[in-house]
Amino acid sequence: MLDLIKWFFATPIGYLVLVLLESLAILVPLLIGVAMLTYVERKVLAAIQLRKGPNVVGPFGLLQPFADAIKMMMKEVVIPTGANRFLFLLAPLLTFTLAMMAWAVMPVGAGWVVADINVGLLYLFAISSLGVYGIVIAGWSSNSKYPLLGALRSAAQMVSYEVSMGFVLVCVLLCVGSLNLSDIVRAQEHLWFFIPLLPMFVVFVISALAETNRAPFDLPEGESEIVAGFMVEYSSMPFGLFFLGEYANMFLMSGLITTLFLGGWLGPFGLWPALGPLWFFLKLCLCLFWFLWARATFPRFRYDQLMRLGWKVFLPLSLVWLVVTATALMVFGWLPNA
């Protein structure tokens, strides 16, 4: 029986089934986690603000995300007059799908990855950069000036901080000498990168807030100027997909921070290596808590402050630290594969 199973998975159809099962093993927990993160956020914000949070639907309010999902699905999908119907419905689907696709190369444990490709870091950067298309398409296809203004603000914000994030990724690449995410994790076996690359770690963590349009950088949703940003014309499940896409991007950025700077599936001081996926999950939760804590703690930035921070602070700092990192690696002979 075992030989028959091995033979089946060696065939092209079997390989396709295997990839599908691996994808489901990543996507199903991720989708459940995205849904429950909405509950966790409301509970964390309530605790910080001395409130109770969701506590009615189900025990401790645990069924609140599912009640919200049912409510979304039962509402009518309203498409504005004059809107491009195809693009209007494509935009939220594109945003959510891209956030899911990125997890194909994210290693959650030793060998626990759907596609362990040699250009995984480049793939992730490309996927995160494509996310801006969903926002721009949503703003333009709504046939309204307010979503368009919100989309332009959001696109400018995301592009601005992607530049600094790109230099951070180059710093990590210099230290590892590989674009493979599993190799990046293994390179941190003795020292996690957030220690030698602390300034880049800080830049990346703050840029992740701006990249996901989270507070204090939630500028597209400036109620006093542009109503609710690029999604103001959306209702029902298209709005729900944008909502879930934001939380899925929080998962993605937290996974990226964990992989690049916090040792991925590696435990602290090499403790319990067999618990690799558990270590990854705990670090992911820690990064997600940072997103929630920042929302409840820091005041909202003005748009000019946001742009000044990205272009006049983070960009020069990341460039300088990139040169410092390259110089140190050259001087001390620490360049990989040298």
In a nutshell, what does this entry contain?
This protein is 68% helix and 0% strand. With 338 residues, the protein is mostly helical.
Structural class: mainly alpha
Question: Could you state the order of secondary-structure elements as H and E?
Answer: HHHHHHHHHHHH
Helix content: 55-70%
Sum up the overall morphology in one term.
Answer: globular
Number of helices: 12
Average residue pLDDT? 86
Uncertain stretches of 5 or more adjacent residues: none
Largest sheet descriptor:
none
Estimate what percentage of residues fall within beta strands.
Answer: under 5%
CA distance, first residue to last residue? 48 Å
Radius of gyration: 21 Å
Tell me how many strands there are: 0
Question: What do these coordinates show?
Answer:
With 338 residues, the chain is mainly alpha-helical. Helices cover 68% and strands 0% of the residues. It contains twelve helices and no strands. α3 crosses α10, α5 runs antiparallel to α6 and α6 packs antiparallel against α8. The longest helix has 37 residues. The N and C termini lie far apart (48 Å). The model has no long low-confidence stretch (mean pLDDT 86).
